Amino acid sequence: MAGPEVPEADRLRLAQQAAAATAGSRLDLRRWSKVQDGQRLRWGAWLGLRQLDGSRRAKVYLELPSEPLDEGAPEPWAHAGLQLASRVLGLTWRMAGVNDDGSVELYARIPELSWSELAAAASLVGHEDRLVSLVGNLITRDQLGRRVVLPRPSGLSLVLAPWGTPMAFTWFAVAKSVWADDEDVRAAVLRTTDLVVCRSDSTGLYQALSSGPDDGRWRHGMVGVGVDRAGGTWLQAGLRPT
To answer: What domain of life does the UniProt record list for this protein's source (predicted)?
Structure first.
């Protein structure tokens, strides 16, 4: 691993080496490194690890300093990413997450996102009605029953297969930009779990982790919902320990 003093331009290479050392990953990031060559970087890259079905999986997150994405991003992912950028005005790609199975997840920040733009973006994987319905249920409506404005900014992510096909789409937002407090977030998450396909033990685990004593600080971080090409849906919520 590397400390904060390591130059940002070196972090992608070190993250790849760490992925191989800790998870046996064979990630090849040479094509992605060209995106960062000669660019001014804020953070460079970091390594994410998770335990899944008894094995450790690696994912390297790298900063995307270029705008638009076609300036150096490798194919076939650049083409699919530009499709989304052309459908949603004001989209800024922030980073890419490169998985050890060859798939890539692109992350974007949208200053202002309308419901119609959300549906158009989600249509890249299909089932956009399911995604819009989940988001609407999660953030609810105003007192007059009108659909609320989407958070500003909103976040989007698009998972691309190794051959470039869009496979999954997620909408997410910072909890404190949407809800009044953690209890409101918790109520929204639990209300929405009935509409998604999730593991039977996930809700109980979330209830346990989200019900700690209030210490005056936000417990929830990012909250989002997603849909995949097969029509599967999910709900995700980031929590800090209490």
So the answer is: Bacteria
